[in-house]
User: What shape does this take?
Amino acid sequence: MYVFKSIHIFVVIVIFTFIGCSDIANPEMESSNDKLAPTLSSAHSGQGGGALTANGWYEGEEIYYIHNGIEEGVTERGENDIYLIGGDRLHQANVVEFIPGESGYSPHWNVYVVHSAEGVTVQDILDSGYASTHYESEGVLFDDVEDLRAALQAGLVTFDRPGVVVNCPIISEKGAEAPGNTELSEEFQPFGETF
Assistant: This one.
C-alpha cells in the first residue's frame, strides 16, 4: 500500500509538472506588448524535466519562483501583481507584490509592464528617491511595489496592463537551483535613457 501511494504521488507530481510547464502561447498577449516575450509567452520545463526558475524582487530582497508561463484564457485573477520593468526580464528581474504567508498571495500574477513616463529619464527616477539601492551594484531600478506605485503617482512611470496572468509560485533559492531545474539568465540589457 505504501509503495502504491508513493508511486501515485510521484505520478501526480510528474503530470502537474508537465502540464504546468508546457508551452503556452497567447497571440493576444503578443499584440498587447511584444516586450513580454520571450519568457512569459512560452514557458517550458527545464533541462532534464525540471522546472524553469527565475529570480525576482520583493521589498528590496531577491526572491525566486517557478516560471510556468501564461495562463491561457485568463485576463485577471485575484489581487496579486507582477511588474515587468520595460518588458519581461528585459532590464532587470521582475518585481512582485506578495510572497507566501501574506494575505493576497497566490501563484497567479496579474501582469503590469512598467515604462518611463513621457519626458522622464532613468536619471530622473534615480534622483526621485523611488529607485532601488541595488541600482549601482546590480542595475536594479525598482525592487519594491510600493516604490513603483509612488513613482506612478509622481508621474515618473506608466503601467500597461496587457490582460495577462502568469503562474509563478515562489520557491526558495535552494529550490530554484535544484538539480534538473533551468534558471533564467540574470544578465539583463542595461537601461537606456528611458525604458
In short: Residues 2-183 form one domain. The chain has a mean pLDDT of 83.
